[in-house]
Amino acid sequence: MAKRIAVFGEVMMRLQVPGYDLLSQAGSLNFSFSGTGVNVGSALARFGHTGYLVTTLPMNSVGDAAMAYLRKLGLTTTFMMRGGQYIGMYFLENGFGARPSRVTYSNRLESSFNTAPEGTYDYEAIAEEADVVHFCGITLAMNDSVRDHMKSLAKAVKARGGTVVFDCNYRPSLWGADGYEKAKPHYEDMLRLADIVMMNEKDAIFILGMHTDKETRSEQLAELIPEVAAQYGIRVAAGTHRSINGDNTHSLQGFIYKNQNFSYSKKLTFSVYDRIGAGDAYTSGIVHGELSGFSPGKTVEFAAAAGMLAHTIAGDTPMSSESEVLRAMTEAVGDVER
After folding, report:
1. What region holds the Carbohydrate kinase PfkB domain (predicted)?
2. Which of 94, 112, 113 is nearest to 103 (CA)?
């Protein structure tokens, strides 16, 4: 059954260096608009839901271009506010071989979204319209004003019986020195409000300061995620383990913890065309599976396949339909579709 999903987050302009050049080598850049909320909301819209992006765009031609781009992605503009003069940007240099991809942020603190004042968003109106609201840790890192917006909206949706989704998505560069210490109280606030949480054992260890004597990631996961779920009242916790292989392929395995049990996807190995946004595709798969009444096993397989397909598509935003993801779960890939 299709649901109405509000996603709260910043719209960013992605400025990508063509090919595998460094920024210092490039003579041109390709631009598009993205962001975690954009990616998750548009992916869920492709799965048949209604995606409302809750954000603020500048009142100028750049904001107009972003609005037009977001409409093409299938996002509903009802709660997209206009104000301010700037949009956050990031420069993307594609990695190759031993050199990783690199993202450099610019102009984020002054963006229209990050300077939106109190009263910008009608929390009650959004909560009345949406069955689900999604937030991420990247947004949580911005400033106290943005954090107040997040928590107020989450409380409003929760009060009306809606579902709150929180993706931990911790970025050290955004929190700065002593980042884990700064982040912990805000993460705890969001975890207490959340029904579905995207996280893994590293988030529990580093952000929440939890201790384990286990040595392997899988053992740490099995010990810590149930503790987090019990402590914060989380209904579903999900995430991935990724490895990069010597031949430049990536391997991905997803997990979901629900009803005090873990379910794991098959380990998927694939080539990577564009990695940015693949985690958002996985998140959208988990949310869609939960909203559609899939079993935990089917949900995690669906999410892992959605994440895999996102690695094959240029740009941040997942573009696969539900039928395409289901096909990737069951059929060999690589043949010509006729």
Report:
1. 3-317
2. 94
Burial class (CB in 10 A: 0-12, 13-18, 19+), 193: buried
pTM confidence score = 0.92
Orientation of helix 278-292 relative to helix 296-310, angle to 10°: 150
Token pair recorded at residue 312? 């094959």
For the chain, report the end-to-end CA distance as a whole number of angstroms: 30
HSE-up of residue 318 (Cα within 13 Å, Cβ side): 33
Q: Quote the CA–CA distance of 108 and 87 in Å, as a whole number.
A: 7
Q: Distance (Å, rounded) from C-alpha 260 to C-alpha 282?
A: 21
Apex 237 CA angle, 263 and 281, nearest 5: 85
CA pair distance 157, 123, nearest whole angstrom: 8
Question: In what helix (H) or strand (E) does residue 31 lie, and over which residues does it extend?
Answer: strand 30-34
Planar angle of CA 164, 168, 169, nearest 5 degrees: 130
Q: Extract the tokens encoding 28.
A: 């041109």
> Angle at Cα 26 formed by Cα 23 and Cα 29, nearest 5°?
90
Residues of the chain short of pLDDT 70, as ranges, are 274-275, 277, 315, 331-338
pLDDT in tens, 208-230: 999 999 999 999 999 999 999 99
CB < 8 Å & 24+ apart, contacts of 124-127: 124/156, 125/79, 126/6, 126/52, 126/54, 126/79, 126/153, 126/156, 126/157, 127/153, 127/156, 127/157, 127/159, 127/160, 127/162
Residues 6 or more apart from 154 whose CB is under 8 A from it?
A: 133, 135, 164, 166, 190, 193, 194
Cβ count near 98 (within 10 Å) = 6
Amino acid identity, position 173: S
Q: What is the largest CA-CA distance in the chain?
A: 55
Task: State the Cα–Cα distance between residues 338 and 328, nearest whole angstrom.
Answer: 15
Nearest to 69 by CA among 317, 324, 277: 317
11 in Cβ contact with 55 (< 8 Å)? yes
Distances (CA, A) of 35 to 23, 262, 316, 324: 21, 29, 8, 23
